[in-house]
Amino acid sequence: MATYYCVAAGNFNSASTWASSSGGAGGAGTPGPGDACILDGNTPSGPTISASQTIGSLDCSAFTGTLNRSNSSLTIDTGDVVLSSGMTYADVNTSQNWAFSATAGTQTLTSAGHTLGNITKTNAGVFTLGDALTMLPNATLNITSGTFDNSVGNYNVTCGIFNGSNSNTRTIKLGSAIYTILMVGNSVTSWSLGTTTGLTFDAGTSQLKFRTTGVVFQVSLGNNNTYYDIEFSSSVSHGMGYMSAMSGVSCNQFRVVGPFVLLQSGNSGLTAANFDFDTSTGLIVLCNRDAFNAQRFVLTLSGGGQISMDKVAIQSSRPGTSTTFIATNSYDLGNNSSITITPPGGGAPLSRIFTGM
Amino acid sequence: MPDRITVKVDFEVETERGLYRDALTIPIEDWPWSEEQIVAAKQARVDNWLAIMTTPPADEPQDGEG
Q: Which of chain A's ends, N or C, has fewer CB atoms near its CB within 10 Å?
């Protein structure tokens, strides 16, 4: 377990880049597993993480130059990663990966406001955040095993894909943070917890904000998972997404902001303490993705009561146990049951309502 | 990793898009920051997040496209 100080604008895997003291002579060797790597005030601007490499930790807290990144995976096997707000983190893309692989203990990522590429948590240790995390809009936060715990700092997380779907032993604790999932890839599963084997999931009082940029995306919630707040919206004039793996899924609030087309895949519905369908800026369409012959979009109020919607179009839906369902100024697209749907006055065409004309 | 001392400033700001929680990590050799520095650093983080949340992409798909 050695400590290496970066003293040259060279590649991370070059012995000449590293010294055994701050500002010392290069040539100390190439840092490897368990080794602490430090970029500080004596580090020139321009070192590069150039190839896949495993180190123990990376501390850039006193570094103010540019750290370049070429396509590779940097594995951190024991300690933390600390970037600084005064540095520049350059050439970021999703062919780059930060892998946190400790088998025990806690590893903390402090990104200092920099936008990162992919992040992967492997092995049995705990991965947590030292501040808010912003990733590229098509980058993946991948929890393969171990624990992702954001329940202490509860920092905001923004990424393209959150993937915790596998059969390894893993724990995901979301805390009370806002998770903004930016869907930019067509047909991408932007939230993936479909396989829940080995998963301990604690949504805390988190808010998941699925925000599409106009592409079709999938949210695989994971059967029987309990969430807190879930929101679907679009940053453009239309958005479309579908939910799957949602048998037994429940949440505190389920909110959709129009204009939005929300499809469901599978045979079960969603239970929430509150449904909020906000059509003040556009119509919402609820329908079944797979077939026309079943009322699959089953919405249930957990305490019973009435779900009220206005300016929606509905297909293959019905209320669940102890729930009534009314929709005013709305369109019946067929195959619904037990929903009171009142069409809009004047018979305005659906296309006009959907486009807000 | 050798012990390096930093000052951590946790903060949260209520925005129209919800509560933003973040932290500033400042090396001890740079401390203290002035109140103005801290406020500006916090605001920059919030502004960056709001920009992501509110700015449509430049290549918004046209009707009929993916």
A: C
